[in-house]
Amino acid sequence: MSKNSTSKIFIDDDMDEYPEVTQADIDRSVFRKNLKPAGNNRVLVSIDSDIVEIFKSKAGNKDFQQLINETLRKAVAA
Question: Would the pTM count as exceeding 0.70?
Answer without folding.
Answer: no
